[in-house]
Design goal:
Helix content: 55-70%
Structural class: mainly alpha
Distance between the termini: 54 Å
Radius of gyration: 25 Å
Strand content: under 5%
Order of helices and strands: HHHHHHHHHEEHHHHHHHH
Length: 363
């Protein structure tokens, strides 16, 4: 058997191919625009990180597809989502580098790029789809400009991605299967509802009896409290929750939302610590995605002002609109609405304490 040939750094990383992949469009018409090199390298780097993010999210989706999800999978899921959030922080910081390019620097080669546009990035759309952005979420400009500029094979790739359960769908299903909140002889939610009513009654009494509030402020705070009460009523009423879902006010199912609240309230119990980490990292991932969108939109406005994008979009205005519109896990952000003080959290019955604790606690 012949010995394995040595592996050289440049060959392993295919550096000749990578380092020869920066072809400046501006050079084709004469003197190259200096900052076009930066522009290309930045976007190629983004695409490499997008590839890694997809690699991690797809593996997490594979793990969450199991029914039930083995407890031994959670450390892997958490580690990979944490890796995604760290990559996202790099993507946000990378905007600082491209902001060293001024408007005049960009205008030296901008027209050479038309109609290419970052919003045509297939991998970015695949990430959005993997997380749970659906066609219904997308703005018409995305559907018209983006889809029309995709190659047929890329359109098929996106269609295949949309047919696969997203992280949102898998997380929702996993939350719905969580068994701890209701048993024949113990119903957490009836006790929770009672604690909520007591909390709201105390808040009402506090506002009504506060001598430091003038009448206008008092009425405003009571109105806000009424809205909070309605929010809790919706949470605890299946019919009202489904109406809210139909109106697009919430996206998670009621059962998934209730179980997510249970995880947050009992996060200190051993059985809830890994699920709590999963929810926290999912929120962090969505937050980092939103932060990147916003920083990108502000950067585009800083360099282009109100000019249209090279791909025909409305430029920074379009990017700002997608910042909120394409968020996926807003319901998890809003869980804090439904948390109650630790002292008010109903005590777990003995049998459930055993189920949610370590068998060898105290050793």
């Amino acid at each position: 058997m012949s010995p394995k040939p040595p592996v050289h750094y440049g060959d392993y990383l295919q550096l000749p191919k990578i380092l020869d992949a920066q072809t400046l469009e501006s050079a084709k018409r004469g003197a190259a625009a200096h900052d076009e090199m930066l522009f290309i390298v930045i976007h190629q780097t983004y695409e490499l990180w997008f590839k890694q993010i997809l690699h991690e999210i797809d593996s997490v989706r594979d793990l969450l597809s199991a029914k039930p999800v083995p407890s031994t999978s959670f450390s892997t899921i958490v580690a990979r989502l944490q890796r995604v959030t760290e990559i996202q922080k790099i993507l946000v910081d990378q905007i600082r580098v491209i902001e060293t390019m001024t408007t005049l620097d960009f205008l030296d080669f901008r027209d050479d790029l038309i109609p290419a546009s970052g919003f045509q990035s297939l991998q970015f759309r695949l990430i959005e789809t993997a997380l749970g952005v659906t066609s219904a979420h997308r703005m018409e400009v995305e559907k018209q400009f983006f889809m029309s500029r995709l190659k047929p094979e890329h359109r098929q790739m996106l269609a295949d991605a949309e047919a696969r359960p997203s992280l949102f769908t898998l997380l929702e299903g996993w939350l719905e299967r969580m068994p701890f909140a209701q048993f024949d002889d113990w119903d957490f939610w009836s006790q929770y509802a009672q604690k909520v009513q007591e909390m709201l009654a105390r808040d009402t009494k506090s506002i009504e009896g506060n001598p430091n509030l003038d009448e206008r402020v008092r009425m405003m705070e009571l109105a806000n409290l009424k809205t909070t009460r309605e929010t809790f009523l919706t949470l605890l009423d299946a019919r009202r929750w489904e109406e809210a879902r139909a109106q697009g006010k919430v996206r998670l199912s009621q059962r998934a939302t209730l179980n997510a609240i249970f995880i947050q309230l009992y996060r200190d119990w051993p059985a809830m610590q890994a699920p709590k980490q999963l929810l926290t990292l999912t929120v962090e991932m969505d937050q980092q995605m939103t932060t990147w969108r916003w920083r990108h939109a502000i950067m585009v406005q800083r360099i282009l002002g109100t000019k249209i994008g090279t791909g025909g979009s409305a430029g920074s205005d379009y990017l700002k609109n997608t910042t909120e519109r394409n968020r996926v896990f807003t319901d998890l952000f809003n869980l804090s609405t439904f948390l109650i003080p630790r002292a008010e959290i109903p005590a777990l019955p003995d049998f459930l304490q055993f189920e949610m604790g370590f068998s060898y606690e105290g050793l």
